[in-house]
Amino acid sequence: MFKRYLEPVIQNHLAKYRQMAFLMGPRQVGKTTLALSLLSSPQESVNYFNWDNPLHRKILLTQIFNGKMSLKNSDQSVLVFDEIHKYPRWKNTLKGLFDTCEPQTHWIVTGSSALNVYRKGQDSLMGRYFSYYLCPLSVAEILDQGVRSKFSVEELFNFTPGASSSEAQESFEQLFELGGFPEPFFKGEKNFLFKWRTSRLDRLINQDLASTEQLRQLKLVEHLMFLLPERVGSPLSLNNLREDLEVHFATVKHWLDLLERVFYGFKIYPYSERARGRMLKKEIKWYLWDWSEIEDPGIRFENMMAVHLLKYVYYLNDLGLGEFSLHYIRDREKREVDFLICQKRKPWIAIECKLSADSVPASLVYYGACLQLKKSFLITREGKRSRSYRQQDQVIEHLPASEFLRVLV
């Protein structure tokens, strides 16, 4: 059985920390499967409760939430609450139960909506949970079979130039074609992928979005979802989207926030510094969690890289290895680098993605020097050899994508 990369992380959490483990991520990325794998003997309505299950929901409402049934059971020390955020008063209820049952029990709470921002205005759970993000499959996860024997932030800086392995290249190509969601990836069939994607989008629209808020214009939100894939990778103009949808600017912004909350896609913000006023500050970029939706190979490649890099950033943060964030760089002279990872809000690593390249882009050299980056990378889909360049007292690694992605997570 394939083990997900967060399994040892959550196991360590349950062994060391009293806080609830909030497990978040896109629908059908494997949150429930991971949570159940962490139970020594899963028993429905005993140590596993799914809000989408009518029987579980009835037991929660009539026996658990009102205190008639105790959750303190020495034989069931780990409890899983799946999609509990769909209950309107979930935060207050969860807080009361946790305060009563802790430390006899350890809790895993999963959700396909961002649990840390959902239902604002209720009693805070601050100090009672740590968040973990389960992301789609990646090259490194497939090669490692989901389990890392060791992990170091410095791995990114210790490349040994050489050829990309056939295993890494094969994993990369399969992910590029099928996306990173477990079911269609392991099924390995394009026809299944198309059917699965249609079903997933339908559930995102008619279940997740419909239950998130009382949206009167759900069809227009669906229209927005169809417009976004062709705008991936470029600075997103909310004004253009507003004109296409014929709605107010604030409405488009709100709908994008909702789509990010239900993990349809995610925003990347530009990096800017006051001392460098020529940098863009407001124009976001939008990427999809399922890059297989994108037809153009260049844009699909950039989106795939974005998901891999965000997964890496989330992992570093979830392990407590520092404060990391993902951005892009662009100035008024249109010098642009696809991705910038910041550490403690300071520029750390720049990554430029291209299908193929014979030379290092001038923008990568420029920003590497002016931002004093620790290292810069030129990542290409084509090509199988790694090369190093030294320009303006900085090292730029030119790597095939499979070689670069294998050292992430």
How would you describe the overall organization of this protein?
It is a single chain. Helix 10 packs across helix 11. The two termini are 19 Å apart. With 409 residues, the protein is an alpha/beta fold. 38% of the residues lie in helices and 19% in strands. The model has no long low-confidence stretch (mean pLDDT 88). It has two domains: 7-133, Rossmann fold (3-Layer(aba) Sandwich); 139-405, no CATH class. The longest helix has 23 residues, at 190-212. It has helices at residues 7-16, 31-37, 54-64, 90-101, 139-143, 166-178, 182-187, 190-212, 218-227, 238-245, 249-261, 297-318, 362-370, 401-405; strands at 20-24, 48-50, 78-82, 106-111, 129-133, 265-270, 285-288, 324-330, 336-343, 346-354, 375-380, 387-391, 394-400. The strands form two sheets. Strands 7-6-8-9-10-11-13-12 form an eight-stranded mixed beta sheet, sandwiched between helices. It has a five-stranded parallel beta sheet with strand order 2-3-4-1-5, with helices on both faces.
Radius of gyration: 22 Å
Order of helices and strands: HEHEHEHEEHHHHHHHEEHEEEHEEEH
Global mean pLDDT? 88
User: Counting H and I runs of at least 4 residues, what is the number of helices?
Assistant: 14
Distance between the amino and carboxyl termini: 19 Å
Helix-strand category = alpha/beta
Strand order of the largest sheet: 7-6-8-9-10-11-13-12
Please tally the β strands and state the result: 13
- Tally of separate domains: 2
Main sheet characteristics: 8 strands, mixed
